[in-house]
Amino acid sequence: MTLVAPLWLLLALPLGLALWQWRPASPLVLLLRALSVLLVLLALAGLALQLPSRHGVVVVVCDRSASMPDKSDDLHRQAINLIRDKMSADDELRLVTFGRDVVLEPLERGVPFNGFQQSVQPDASSLGEAIETALGLIPPGSPGRLVVLSDGRWTGQDPTTQVGKALARNIAIDFRAIERLTAGDLAIARIDAPSQVATGEAFLLTAWVQAPEAGSVKYKLRRGDEVLASGQREVGSGLNLFRFRDRAVQPGNQAYTLEIEGSARDPVPENNQAKLLVGISGPKPLLHLAPQANSGLNRLLRAGGLDVRQVDPGAMRWRLEDLDRYSGLILENVPAEKIGEAGLQTIAGWVKETGAGLMMTGGQRSYGTGGYYKSPLEAILPVSMELRNEHRKLSLAIVVALDRSGSMAAPAGAGRTKMDLANLGTVSVLDLLGPMDEFACFAVDTTPHLVAPLGNAEANRAKYRADILRIQSMGGGIYVDKALKAGLDTLQRAKAGTKHMILFSDAADSEQPGDYKRLLELAEKAGITVSVIGLGSDRDKDGDLLKDIAKRGRGRIFFTERAEELPRLFAQDTFVVARNTFIDEKTPIHHLPSLRTLTDADFPSPKGLSVGGYNLCYLRPEATLASVTLDEYKAPLVASWRAGAGRVLCYTGEADGKFLGEMGKWDRVGDFFTSLARWTAGPANPLRDGMMLTQEVREGLARLQLHLDPDRLQGAPFQRLPIVRILRSSLGQVPHARQDTLRWTGADTLSLEVPLGAGETVVCTVEIENEAPVSLPPLCLPYSPEFKPSQRESGQLSLERLARATGGIERLALGEVWRDLPRQVQQVPLARWLLLAAVALWLLEVLERRTSVLANWLRRQSATLSNAANSEARVGDRTERAASARRAKTLSGPSPMPIRPEPVEAEKSATSAAVPSVTEEKGSVLAALRQARRRLDQREGS
Question: Do 566 and 644 sit in the same domain of this protein?
């Protein structure tokens, strides 16, 4: 036995004194009370038995990385169920899975494992981290064992570093190897090029190709989408060197892709293509997106000496390596839908984390009316785009008809459904409306269901929001004609000057259009407009129907295949309907002295200088106002600020078109826009002399180094260590960022190692105090390290070493792992039973104090036992006397039987009084004993 918390026993002395001081009158009650107190003390002190046992914990560690063979998840499931079926009620089974991430999978006792519920990034194998996590799941002192189901390939932490922890706790690591067949694999083992070259410089790319046998290999090298070299050459068994030559074209970076193909089927085709990025130093141009091919703003900037590359918005892929070729981005009256949600997120991350610049100009397809409200880009702009009620001139009535058909129940990421995001979009419309506006909402399947009746938006906001957010998909399809009729009938009763309907529907499941053309004719006569937001593509089967509804309804049509864009599209349509966010009137403007901080030049405002229209926005508190309108709104025309490491400038007027106004005739308009764009581009050479930044990729890590001048003046060169902003992006994924600091690795060198993931592009930006941020060229891995040939050969050996070092085995019979758990002394806590016993004693004490039943029972038992003992003693004496008499008679020989005289009356009376009759105690044990004694006396007398 053992005590887990013996300190509780210190209470024994005060409790004993208390019991003695207030002891009850009955000793029995005192005993019961003392025993119950003792049991509670022992429970608090953690009394436990120490018994040897094999029952313990088995943790299964499953490899779900990309290098595993097809259907390996099914093999994992079968293995887990084999182990689960052999466990006893006292055993525990835990499950850890890993790729790049390490996650714990839930297991229900008594329920077969049906498959993995959580996802892991499969582009890496964090075997070491998974084993560390698994060891932490086995309680100290409990028998345990690990079963690793993997191909043995690992990245990140070396799994052998966990051997010491396993040995210290007597935990063996078993394994079962599950490998993909790799015989005959042709692979690009390595590809190299200079990390950075100068513009116009020629350089060499080298690649090592590992061939399983001699033969011919086809190859193709691309720079972006352009094929630089291709052909076929003979290779020998083993490593073969391929060399290519190219020249740096423009500052930024150049992306290269090498592809190879052998004559036989390749079991691991993932390593037949490798990617490489080469940084090119020099001043980068500005990227310009404009709605028309020959932008007047672009001509002005070029005439001002700026290197500006105009690109059609639809031609951009919005990857970090593409954006890194430019110093900044100019968005000239381009709607957000032309860029897309993923593109907007990438631009926002690129500006904030890499120190790039962004300049946005105004127009009817920009800012709020262009769909930037509630977009990822809005947060980094120095102006806000809300609809302020004090600047509203017309009241607005909006009815939203929401498709709640079965397709809306599909998941849309982050635990939300398409219906949830449509609800949020409807709420964003409601939030934009004010006390002068009216609002109503229907949820539609085969019939319209009124969710929010037509009413004042401000007064009913809280209730409407709650009701809308509770809308759920109920099955069926949306009947378009019934949705239109319900919305139009409701708007007929509205009092607002502007009446508008938003129809949200699935572009692939819009049923029963009915006589929608007649309904929309009636809507046009009543001054009601109808916009359509279609979830899907205009190529879906009902895409043409939705476009025709929007056209006949004099509204707008929006299509999106990404449900997360719905809130932004709902808000964009509301902005357009409100119309007062774009002021299409001639408006005088004035340049403030703070404009000089952007342009390094004075731009006095000539008399009569005006714009033909602008987007009504509001200055954010920390932004710098450089130019302002002189109308009733006093709105910002030019505003700027720093967003993270980047520079963002907003010009709310139109830079080219009919709303340019008198600005187009101003003799300094070219210098004005060129100065704003030059500030957006930032400095060309931000680092001072004596500093140099370098980076290279080694073993899946990007190694950054800041080199200082060895001949610099002594003393600390920095008050604080330089910060590194690390931006990661994968195609189609939201970029994510983090920060770290450079650390001293030598007298004149600071360094940082950044892990790279497969399929990721990583851009590092270094911020040094009193210096402008420096963005380094983007980096990437050739392919996932899961498929690196040198790793594949050591997979089985890694597992064998782990097992041999910890006393494990290759586990072929998985169910027998429970029999191999080590016998260990385990503590069996008794606190629960001790407390139950204490409660029982307490109840017994209460019973005794109320009834004295125990004391009475003990007295009866004591009397019975005493009488029985006395009777047995008398019988023993008689028997002894009789035996003595017989022995004496035997020694003296036979003699005539003496005549026993009759007893006198007094003796008879005494005898009668001493010996009670049999009838008086019939059935009593004592009576039976006395009767036997009397018979013995009679035989002796005879």
Answer: no
